[in-house]
Design goal:
The complex is a heterodimer.
Chain A: E1 2-10, E2 15-19, E3 23-26, E4 42-50, E5 54-63, E6 68-72, E7 79-83, E8 86-88, E9 92-95, H1 106-118, E10 123-126, H2 135-144, E11 147-151, H3 174-188, E12 194-198, H4 207-217, H5 221-224
Parallel strand pairs in A: 9-10, 10-11, 11-12
Antiparallel strand pairs in A: 4-5, 6-7, 7-8
Chain B: E1 5-8, E2 14-17, H1 25-28, E3 42-43, H2 50-56, H3 75-78, E4 85-92, E5 100-105, E6 111-116, E7 119-123, E8 131-134, E9 144-152, E10 201-206, E11 209-221, E12 226-237, E13 243-253
Antiparallel strand pairs in B: 1-10, 2-3, 2-4, 4-9, 5-8, 5-10, 6-7, 6-9, 11-12
The chains are: A alpha/beta, B mainly beta.
Chain lengths: 233, 262
């Protein structure tokens, strides 16, 4: 087990950001996509105790050690993926959503996602006209090894390319779009199956939104030096 | 002392069409709470949408059978009020000492007003954003809390042209919401545009300091033999005093087979 405790004082009413000293692992079990190895998952738990008052809050999440890289191949124009340094032949399926009336359930997600894994898929593409899928969706993609390509809420038909051409500048409220995008990233970013954020379906988001997304989703400089990942738009 | 942690509110909800309820949210969460599934109140599915609740109560045919969807009035014809619904429930929660309670909505489509024990809060627009309200000071002293949520549809529900088409008249694209709801080549239009409390509702109890949105990043060296886990988290001290904290992180692996950790 890896256990580390730090002490810090938080001023009254303050909202602070804290980074633990990095935890070292020697040859941890890696997380692999379906068909390439085990989907090893670790449980990461964080607790905060306040002196004199006991435990104040706790949080836990399943985490997989994996490095996802991707780039556009000059020869074919297609996007090539690597996981943990190994090239992956992507067998991807389109995912619009579990149920048109949003009757979303863990049981349904587990069944649908295991079905795709059993069909030997290793990626699900969450289409931009549907949902930012839910943590329960990602949890089963983590378990069954399905990489996820998650689009934001822009589609070619509705945003500037359809017939009739409509919403050439996307949604009316760009700040609201970015607020929702940022909150969605915070909700989903710790899932090992999340492989790629994509601006939209068959359409590039409006310039200001696309630039902001690219900027927000760049990996923090602290990590960029040694861990180029494809979690970019 | 209530246990630290999250409790989902996913049962005992009632719903009613806003135009059929003369009471305000203050009435509904103080003197006149709905007592049960008696008109205009029906049992509600939460998380879920208005149409999901109407279908559960057999008040509309199943839109995914045959041409049944044609017999459900579309929001473009009914107007937004017709699919603007109240969702009510009650929950037991009584905190002591320096505990804090948040009321969390993981997804509302498209905006809402929340009433808790007669106090009103606004949930701003946007289908893909979480809402977390610190309700510590408005919990009922006896622990029995009344909650009412008035959910409004997207601002631009659009109208489905006679010829249909991908995304209908594309009006839904003006909002930050799922666009398939105006219909697509694979999907019939969703009559309420998925208005509702479409994702998890919960209450979470913490002490003075709250953990917010930790971020886990791993870095790899020496051909994946040397690996680091970098963890950043936001922390919020909701008290009026300095909080001397011990912050712990623990990483354990799932035990395979019938191995047990002693």
């Amino acid at each position: 087990e890896h256990l580390q405790t730090q002490h810090l004082s938080i001023p009254p009413g303050a909202h602070v950001q804290y980074t633990f000293p990095q935890l070292f692992f020697y040859k941890p079990n890696l997380w692999w996509p379906n068909g390439m190895g085990e989907q090893s998952l670790y449980n990461v738990g964080i607790t905060v105790d306040v002196k004199g008052y006991g435990e104040s809050d706790s949080w836990s999440h399943q985490f997989g050690f994996r490095k996802v890289e991707s780039h556009i191949d000059d020869a074919t124009g297609g996007r090539l993926f690597k996981v943990n340094g190994q090239p992956v032949f992507i067998r991807g399926g389109n995912w619009t959503l579990s149920d048109g009336l949003l009757r979303l359930s863990k049981k349904r997600y587990k069944t649908d996602i295991k079905f795709h894994a059993d069909m030997n898929f290793n990626m699900l593409r969450c289409w931009g006209g549907g949902l930012a899928e839910r943590p329960e969706f990602y949890q089963y993609c983590d378990i069954y090894g399905l990489l996820v390509w998650q689009e934001f809420w822009i589609t070619g038909d509705v945003d500037g390319r359809g017939d009739p051409v409509s919403n050439p500048d996307g949604p009316l409220d760009h700040d609201l779009f970015l607020l929702c995008a940022r909150d969605t990233v915070k909700l989903l970013r710790n899932h090992p199956s999340l492989a790629l954020w994509v601006g939209g379906n068959e359409q590039i988001p409006p310039e200001d939104i696309n630039t902001a997304l690219k900027n927000d989703l760049k990996l923090h400089p602290h990590f960029r030096s040694f861990n180029r990942t494809s979690n970019s738009v | 002392m209530v246990a630290i942690g999250k409790t989902k509110l996913d049962s005992g909800w009632l719903a009613a069409r806003s135009t059929e309820v003369d009471l305000t949210g203050v009435h509904l969460t103080t003197t006149h709470p709905p007592t049960g599934p008696s008109s205009p109140w029906i049992e509600a599915v939460v998380p879920g949408t208005v149409l999901g609740t109407l279908l559960k109560n057999n008040l509309v045919p199943d839109p995914f059978y045959g041409l049944e969807n044609e017999s459900i009035i579309d929001i473009a014809d009914s107007g937004r009020e017709y699919y603007t619904f109240w969702f009510c429930t009650k929950f037991q929660c009584k905190v002591t000492g320096d505990q804090h309670v948040d009321l969390n909505f993981r997804g509302i489509n498209y905006s809402a007003e929340v009433y808790l024990n007669g106090h009103k809060k606004i949930l701003p627009k946007g289908m893909f954003r979480r809402h977390s309200l610190d309700v510590t000071d408005i919990l009922h002293p006896d622990g029995q809390n009344l909650l009412a949520v008035l959910v409004h549809p997207p601002d631009h529900p659009g109208r489905i042209p006679p010829e249909g088409g991908q995304g209908g008249d594309h009006e839904i694209g003006k909002d930050v919401a799922a666009q398939y709801v105006e219909g697509w080549d694979w999907m019939t239009p969703i009559r309420d545009r998925n208005t509702g409390i479409w994702d998890e509702v919960s209450i979470s109890v913490t002490g003075r300091v709250k953990i917010v949105d930790p971020h886990l990043v791993s870095s790899f060296f020496d051909d994946y033999k040397r690996v680091y886990l970098h963890t950043t988290t936001e922390l919020e001290n909701r008290s009026a005093w300095v909080a001397e904290c011990s912050l712990s992180i623990q990483v354990t692996t799932e035990l395979e087979g019938n191995f047990f950790l002693v």
